[in-house]
Design brief:
Layout: E1 4-5, E2 14-17, H1 23-34, E3 40-46, H2 50-61, E4 65-70, E5 76-81, E6 89-92, H3 97-107, E7 113-117, H4 128-136, E8 140-142, E9 151-154, E10 162-166, H5 173-182, E11 189-193, H6 200-212, E12 217-220, E13 223-226, E14 236-238, H7 243-256, E15 259-262, H8 290-299, E16 303-307, E17 310-314, E18 323-325, H9 333-344, E19 350-353, H10 365-375, E20 379-382, E21 387-390, H11 408-418, E22 425-426, H12 439-448
Parallel strand pairs: 2-15, 3-14, 6-7, 10-11, 18-19
Antiparallel strand pairs: 1-22, 3-5, 4-5, 7-9, 8-9, 11-13, 12-13, 15-17, 16-17, 19-21, 20-21
């Protein structure tokens, strides 16, 4: 593949950007629509990404009616028709954590075996928590002791349900994947994690979306219970812009002392069918961890505001060093690492904590970030649960293309550093299509001052 030259910023990056819909919200909404009691639902503004495509194709293989049409601002509108009964199938998970961890608990409801496999690296990603939970519920698996892809879920048309305890230390998706199908189990589902769960806001997202779909969910620390009953999601669900993807553009303003606005950021809104919910949408938490993201950006001196134009970040004159726990927002670690490396150029050290679990993401992100940063002359060291970034001994210079590791977050971290490191290339910028399908063109336009059409 041809390496992509990351543009260098000649001054403050300023502009308004439109980002795709949230992949995390999209794939939860698609699965909840597929598990609905009956009828057709449309997920509006769905992320246009490989992960979304894999989820739609996986659901279709299992007998769900699907139809996809172009949406606004480069998104998709996906119409899902609940089949009543899922069927046996083969599912390609690609490298999508939401597909490999959300669909197996649904596959246990199928009328036949559902085979799961994915990309070569997907076979190294942890799956134990989900499969451990299914075994605890009496769901058959082949091989019986499977803890990685490939495996087969031996669907028998239903699951009794009950209570299970799992180790969710490797991924919050283990908890979310089980909960999303729990209302369809005969006795519902109670999930207890025996360990600390990383990225808890993503479990909160799952709980909120289940409640919006009519499920009764109760929560305690490390314990979640979904009562049995029909899911009746709204016939039209609008997906929020992707906060993790937006953070990359906001970080460009921070690195260059610029100002970037993410257009279309949603205000809190009431539920479309409030009679189905004990709480209004105003009383439910944000679907995405905006508060945690704001804290991380503000630690670097950013001014973050929300208004009718969207979410805006004004970057500081210089980035300080930080000591920050990213446990709730591990997805942002590559972006925050890039910020910390730029801060180190001013003589500041940083410590990023609470993200041991991202070793099991699309790649071992801690090892990859340390390796690629070292290759350009930065000083980034791995710790047990994160990274330490220290001032380099000289200027940063690329000696080879920045490695993306087939990981969208690694690729965008390289683009951020390219703002201040002339000549930096990325070996596989196409990895960004996982969540930002037009990233290369959009990024270049923003750095040139053209902005991204909103």
């Amino acid at each position: 593949m041809t390496a992509w030259s990351a543009p260098t910023a000649d001054g403050p990056v300023e502009g308004t950007v439109a980002v795709p819909g949230s992949k995390s919200i999209t794939n939860r909404a698609l699965l909840l629509a597929a598990l609905a009691a009956d009828g057709t639902r449309t997920v509006v503004g769905a992320a246009r990404s490989r992960d979304t495509t894999l989820m739609v194709e996986g659901l279709a293989a299992m007998g769900v009616g699907t139809a996809t049409a172009p949406g606004r601002d480069g998104t998709l509108d996906v119409t899902i028709t609940a089949p009543g009964h899922l069927r046996g199938a083969r599912v390609d998970c690609g490298l999508a954590g939401t597909v490999m961890r959300f669909l197996p608990p649904a596959a246990a409801l199928a009328d036949g075996p559902v085979e799961f496999d994915g990309d070569p690296h997907a076979r190294t990603r942890p799956m134990g928590g989900v499969l451990e939970g299914l075994r605890g519920l009496g769901v058959g698996l082949e091989p019986a002791d499977a803890d990685r892809l490939p495996f087969t879920v031996l669907g028998r048309g239903g699951v009794r349900g009950g209570a299970v305890t799992v180790d969710a230390s490797a991924s919050s998706q283990f908890v979310s994947g089980l909960l999303l199908s729990g209302a369809r189990y005969d006795d519902g589902l109670v999930v207890t994690s025996s360990t600390t769960v990383p990225s808890l806001p993503h479990v909160d997202m799952t709980v909120t979306m289940l409640r919006l779909a009519g499920a009764t969910v109760t929560t305690e620390p490390s314990r979640w219970a979904v009562s049995p009953g029909p899911l009746v999601p709204d016939t039209r669900f609008v997906v929020e812009p992707d906060l993790s993807g937006a953070a990359v553009y906001l970080a460009a303003a921070m690195i260059t002392g610029g100002r970037v606005t993410v257009a279309g950021w949603p205000e809190r809104r009431p539920a479309a069918n409030p009679e189905r919910h004990t709480q209004s949408r105003h009383d439910l938490p944000d679907l995405q961890p905006i508060t945690a993201v704001r804290r991380a950006l503000e630690a670097f001196g950013a001014e973050v505001t929300e208004g009718p134009d969207g979410l805006t970040v004004q970057g500081p004159d210089r980035l300080p060093g930080v000591d920050v726990d990213l446990g709730e927002i591990g997805e942002l670690t590559p972006t925050v690492t890039a910020l910390a490396i730029v801060a180190s150029l001013g003589g500041h050290s940083s410590r990023l904590r609470g993200v041991a679990h991202i070793r099991g993401h699309e790649t071992d992100r801690l090892a990859a970030l340390a390796a690629e940063a070292t290759a350009i002359g930065a000083r980034v060291d791995e710790t047990d649960d994160g990274l330490e970034v220290h001032p380099p001994s000289g200027p940063l210079r690329p000696i080879r293309p920045w490695g993306a590791y087939a990981d969208h977050r690694m690729a965008t971290a390289g683009a951020l550093l390219g703002l201040v490191v002339p000549g930096l290339e990325i070996d596989d910028v196409a990895a960004t299509t996982k969540t930002l399908p037009d990233f290369a063109d959009d990024w270049s336009a923003l750095v040139r001052g053209a902005g991204i059409p909103a």
